[in-house]
Amino acid sequence: MKAFGFLSFGHYADVPGSATRTAGDMLKQTIEIAEGADELGVNGAYVRVHHWARQAASPMPLLSAMAARTERIEVGTGVIDMRYENPFQFAEEAAALDLISDGRIALGVSRGSPETALRGYETFGFRDTEDPERGSVLAREKFEIFLRAIDGEPLAPGDPRMVGAGRYLQVEPQSPGLRDRIWWGSGSRATAEDTGRQGLNMMSSTLLTEATGVPFHELQREQIELYRAAYKEAGHTRPPRVSVSRSVFPLIDDRDRAYFGLRSEENGDQIGIIDGYRSTFGKTYAAEPDVLISQLKQDSAVMAADTLLLTIPNQLGPDYNLHVLEAFAEHVAPALGWKPNTEGPVQGDPVV
């Protein structure tokens, strides 16, 4: 592990105990957390994307504001659901964000996670005729078009009266190197290998849509190894980036113990059914810093990845969440190999 960032689900609700009552609260507080995290040396600020729910949904305006208000921190998503996207508009927005941020982005995309709406992407105007229930084929087809667009491939026939006969046009703006900052959210070993073959970066969360009987971190470590092997075999040479997500809470003061002290007794993975797949859920880490250091060093996936994304309880407000990030940066991360954002952009491990 070289770097860490925070991952916010962007929950908001007008309920007792919540410091994030409205969508406006959530958006402004996420920007505030990103600003504070940038000053702490945290490497990344990432948001989840969920439609049809009181959570973060439309990431580009939020990421643009975060990028404009920070100097060094990487801003990104985990993940954008391609079933909902127009790939050409998304290509324009991604390039614009990359230019605004001077390349400080990490856009995670995938088919997305289960949602409250029944095939909500159809209400957005998109339909998958081959895989109507999950939309996996639709997501992959759109993603392929998106990659072609950001690579500058001429895709739209030009008006011969304006640009000459037989000319095709590329999406604008273009941002050189943008593809190197695109990540695929992989939930299985098969998708990890496919991500490696495409030469993309890989995000792996606290959920894998597989259950083989081995501990979650070992299953995820196997996923990372398969990804890197496929990346190398395909002939890619750029050092690839790999991130994993965890819920980690250093118990420093009475607030921490009140919020998460009982979590320290939860010390096991969970098995369940998600989207029809038997899946493995990673455990929550909550303990004193020295215990966390020992536990995370034994987490083979955390140590294999270059970046760790910490899921944060955003409804507890910016002050508390920045306290969590500062505690991790001060008491835990240095022992794991962390380099703060003042030392430059995060680099992936070389292809060997």
Brief digest:
The protein is α/β, with parallel strands linked by helices. It is 38% helix and 19% strand.
Corresponding CATH architecture: Alpha-Beta Barrel
Query: In terms of per-residue confidence, which ranges show pLDDT below 50 for 5 or more consecutive residues?
Result: 271-280
Q: Given the structure, what is the number of helices? A: 13
Large-scale geometry? globular
Largest sheet, order of strands side by side?
Answer: 1-2-3-4-7-8-10-14
Q: Quick one: how many beta strands?
A: 14
By CATH, the topology is TIM Barrel
* CATH class term: Alpha Beta
The secondary structure category is alpha/beta
Mean pLDDT: 92
Order of helices and strands: EHEHEHEHHEHEEHEEHEHEEEHHEHH
Q: Which percent range describes the beta-strand content?
A: 15-25%
Explain the overall architecture.
With 352 residues, the protein is α/β, with parallel strands linked by helices. The chain has one domain (3-343): TIM Barrel. It contains 13 helices and 14 strands. Strands 1-2-3-4-7-8-10-14 form an eight-stranded parallel β-barrel, surrounded by seven helices. Helix 2 packs parallel to helix 3 and helix 7 (189-198) runs parallel beside helix 8.
